[in-house]
Fold this protein.
Amino acid sequence: MTAPSFLQTTWLIASSTMKHGTRDRTVALLAAMFFVMILIAAYLGWSATATVNAIYAKAALVFQAQGKPVPPNPVGETPPLSVFRNMVTYVALLGALAALVLGHQIMATDRKSGIVPLLFSRPARRTAIATGKISALFLTIVGILAISLLVNIFTLLVMPGLALNAGVWIGLLKFYTVSALYMFAFAMLGAVCATRFKTESVALLLPITIWLALTFIVPQVTSNISPMAALNPMSANIVPPSSHFFVITSSVFGPLSIAEAYRFLASTYLGVVPGAGASTTAGGALLSLLVTNVMLLGFFTLSVKNLDASRSEYRD
Amino acid sequence: MALAIEITKLTKSYGTFVAVENLNLQIEQGEVFGFLGHNGAGKTTTIHILTSLLAPTSGKASICGYDIVDQGMAARTNLGYVPESVRLYEQITAFENLLFFARLSGVEKPKSSIDETLMLLDCPELSSKCVGSMSKGQRQRIGLAQAILHRPPVLFLDEPTAGLDPAGIKTLRDLITKLNRELGMTIFMNTHLISEVSKTCTSIGVLSHGQLVYRDSIDKVMARFGDDQTLEDMYLSLAPPKAA
Amino acid sequence: MTDALSQIRVLAAKEIRDALHTHTITLLTVFLTIAALVSLSVSAIALRAEYQSYIEARDLLISLGKSAADLVPPAFFPLKLLRGFIEHVEILGAVLGIVLGYRAVAVERGHATLALIFTRPITQIVFLCGKLAGNILMIFAGLALTFGVGAVALTIIGGVGLAGNDLLRILMVFVSASFYVTIFFLLGFLLALTLKRLPTALLIALAIWLSLVLIAPQIGDTMDPDNQVAGGVFRTLGVPKPEEKEILRSFANYETIRDGIEQASPAKHFERLSFAVLGIKDIYNGQPISDVVKDRITDVWWLFLIVAALALVLFLTPLNLTRLIKEQ
């Protein structure tokens, strides 16, 4: 009997993890909620356009009655993808939280079910197991986002009055790429914490706390964006007050502030805000997201390698 | 022929606490070895090291001649492990669980191996049952199936009869004997139940406070201690538990 | 009766001891306090920067020989600095409530402790009362810490002592914050008690938190017809005011749905009430407390009624002891 190869183990772990994942009700619930929000975002986008069209039609009548020239319809002037501006908020909230829980589950399920000793006493390299888990997470997130992309493409095609060109489709793809990066970072964070901590409540609440801090507290420190305003994609355009304090905080915390980096990139790609933004640049923001992902990947692999399989079950 | 298990000067310590101390043990192929000791003697730690779940602090150990640290993959290919309380993926069926572990162990024809194994363990009807809805005894059997799918030469059982009812204990004993006689598996079994050992084992070792205090074949044990002394008396004289 | 009361006291005391030993509760309370403090300090720094810009602009105008009379100096209302503070209580306080509620059940479920408790001469009502009393006291204590630190920080940063009136306003917001957090505590507690699996309960509670606290207000905001185009639809088109009102009339149904979504969110009620009491919303700035409360009395009722409704559901739901005692 020969031990399975690295790739065979990776594939085996990835496929079985995904199979269990789809049967887990919590993950299914969060994914369903995410899809509902995607549909709502699409509806809101559609309804916004329809509302403006309706207002425009009525206003045109008013102008005609008064004998004034009719101005052009603002729908034609706005970037088509900006109808999806709510997506930025939903990916940052529900997308990130769902990814975090998904990442948590892929390790926590094994630890809770007491399967880790069985898994680690097989002739499988721990790095292959970690790679399998990472692949499963990646494929799941890409899968969820692919469905959401299809919903958005459909919405764009049925919406009247939008000027669709190659730039629109490229922008949409870019938006989904950074969304995948952002969600993947939180998935890895969830997985790292689920692997490292001894109790499940800490393993779940610590990454949630980090997520809360990144989403609501850091933007305030770096750019004086209040917590509720941090949800608004338009806040990517806010210029922090001219003060030494914000110059220092944005250069110290800026690179760590991946929530701001994501909001900036996503809002820019959707055309919600003009690209030349406040304190961030697209290159810097992308670098922040990439570096965070790579670091978490390494950290996760290391955590799996160092997991004490003889005491792998959570204490709570 | 290489020894099934060879342990040389094995030590595992956590800070100042020494769980296993300078353990030397050789187990021939085909033995059914009962590893006795009171709770906390270091039995499970030893099994965890031998199944490469835990790294030893010092010393060496090998399975079928493969070093557990330097040749971990080969060592693990040659062993199967059933933990004290068998835990598998609850939401899926026994068959799906077994398929997963068979592939992970590099079994070439996993499906036929599962069928054969379940037949061998007299429980083909469990195949399509969800693990979550199984009794303790049924889980134990699927756990055992999981460990022998790849027909490993060495099988580790950690307190195999814990929590089973008398009928379950009897069935499990028969299975252990069957695996040893029909498949020639070497079995390393942790237990603190003396009755267990006299019925199934060919040899025993007694661990006390991390140290091996006795090792002999079951026949010699019986001969040495005779009928006037029960196995329990013998065990308590060899490995007195620490005063509470 | 005295028996029941002393039983409640024993249960509540045990809850408090338990909660104090739970690191996550301490962590979240400290986190909330730090977040609130950071927000307060940052607001003050931003205000100072704004004031600095005003001084520079004014000096520039004067040096150019022009009048600086048109330049309005930034107004300083200490309580207005609490905007971010309130929003943190709104977001993080709700999470604290959910985690407290979850913990209160999680410590009992699957540990067979409930079996021990209910083999004592105790009724389910007494048991629930004890649990609620202990945890609600914890909520009060946690928020008292946050608000206390906030008030002290405001005094130091503002450089002026807070007037009695200001303190009364902060106290009122503290009480409504306690009610608000209690809503989420009851939600977490109820879900953890009734759902089949504990982790599912925590996640569903968090999903509800997301929808009520973060998503509903945001949807309400984006559905505002005038907000659909940056800068406002009507201003972009140059529609005069009277016509704007006429056109908007045909969107009345749309407006009802929008308002309905906002009303459904307890967060929005807490936010509207607090922003009014603290004068963060400009129309309430400088108004006497009695007028403000009279104007926002529906928000007070909403907060109170949601707490009452959840408590009622809790007391009317029979406990499924077999499930609660079963090992998880």
In short: Chain B has a mean pLDDT of 87.
